[in-house]
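queue> pop job 88
queue> type: inverse folding (structure -> sequence)
queue> payload:
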């Protein structure tokens, strides 16, 4: 009954858009039964998907229907594809891996660097912390390279190559990427089956490859599924250049932004792996706007010294009876700003004599 109502609702949405200005620009959404008429040959990384098996076909149709129902998400898949997939495609090609593996990143994260799961997976490829570190991704309170497209794709290329070598097929490699290689190996040994389509796996993993294949179908045949985007509708690639920057001690990312002659948001957007408001001591290869003039390191050194001096001049000594709220009220600044400037937790206890950096209202509050 629920499924029948769901289909009726889907058809109603199609009829609504087919008579609107949206339909004139974007095309009519094809009927559901046409969308489910899959080609007799569907492959994943060159391996045939056994659609002649009624169970496999049903699983494929279900995931395709769900992907098509979420048309807003599918449009964003398409629009983001030109921004991020060329980087993944090039890295897969250089490593000699199948191009279809790029759809795993799309199914995992919808190509969003900051998306996370309740279990702790983060980034384009949704690496768990322990797996990311195993493949040389830096993950700490300052840096999380799971959010960096190039670094995380390099890790995914290595991981997927190892999984394919271990399991002997790309469908099983994808399943292991989703559920973990030990869990998949245990099920193969227990069930005596080494075919993804015939294994009884956790329900999420049973659906997983079909979600990936749905993404492949939509991105390779958008017109067939009613997505009529023009070239101008796609997001352009992110244009940037890279600079090497050395910081002898921890500093504010605002200092980095000023050295690159841009704003804080631009630095964070170009370097999604940077966490929080500060850059730890060390040497970094950072993305900056492509028109950034030379001399970033020199400007950074000068800006960092100015920032250090400003902090020294803005020290407040905590007095008996003070708490964060009363201090914020005294200086007429947001309490959250004090937390950022001093990297402290709201629940931290203050003691008389503690030193806090405070930028009074009207001073340079743009520098954490």
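queue> result:
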């Amino acid at each position: 009954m629920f499924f029948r109502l769901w289909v009726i609702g889907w058809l109603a949405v199609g009829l609504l858009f087919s008579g609107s200005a949206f339909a004139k620009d974007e095309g009519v959404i094809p009927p559901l039964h046409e969308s489910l008429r899959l080609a007799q040959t569907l492959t994943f990384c060159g391996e045939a998907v056994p659609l002649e098996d009624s169970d496999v076909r049903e699983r494929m149709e279900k995931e395709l229907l769900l992907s098509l129902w979420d048309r807003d998400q599918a449009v964003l898949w398409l629009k983001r594809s030109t921004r991020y997939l060329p980087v993944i495609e090039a890295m897969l090609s250089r490593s000699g891996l199948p191009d279809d593996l790029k759809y795993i990143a799309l199914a995992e994260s919808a190509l969003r660097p900051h998306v996370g799961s309740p279990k702790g997976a983060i980034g384009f490829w949704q690496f768990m912390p322990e797996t990311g570190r195993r493949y040389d991704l830096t993950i700490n309170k300052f840096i999380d390279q799971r959010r960096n497209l190039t670094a995380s794709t390099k890790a995914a290329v290595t991981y997927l190559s190892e999984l394919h070598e271990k399991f002997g097929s790309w469908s099983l490699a994808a399943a292991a990427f989703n559920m973990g290689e030990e869990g998949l190996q245990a099920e193969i040994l227990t069930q005596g089956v080494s075919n993804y389509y015939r294994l009884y796996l956790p329900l999420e993993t049973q659906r997983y490859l079909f979600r990936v294949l749905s993404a492949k179908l939509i991105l390779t045949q958008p017109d067939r599924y009613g997505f009529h985007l023009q070239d101008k509708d796609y997001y352009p690639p992110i244009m940037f250049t890279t600079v090497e920057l050395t910081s002898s001690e921890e500093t504010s990312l605002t200092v980095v932004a000023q050295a690159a002659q841009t704003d804080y948001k631009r630095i964070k957007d170009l370097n999604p792996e940077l966490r929080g408001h500060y850059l730890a001591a060390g040497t970094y290869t950072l993305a900056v706007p492509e028109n950034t003039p030379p001399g970033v390191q020199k400007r950074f050194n000068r800006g960092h010294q100015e920032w250090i001096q400003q902090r020294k001049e803005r020290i407040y000594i905590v007095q008996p009876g003070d708490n964060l709220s009363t201090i914020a009220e005294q200086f007429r600044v947001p309490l959250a700003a004090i937390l950022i400037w001093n990297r402290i937790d709201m629940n931290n206890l203050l003691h008389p004599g503690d030193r806090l950096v405070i930028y009074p209202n009207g001073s340079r509050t743009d520098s954490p």
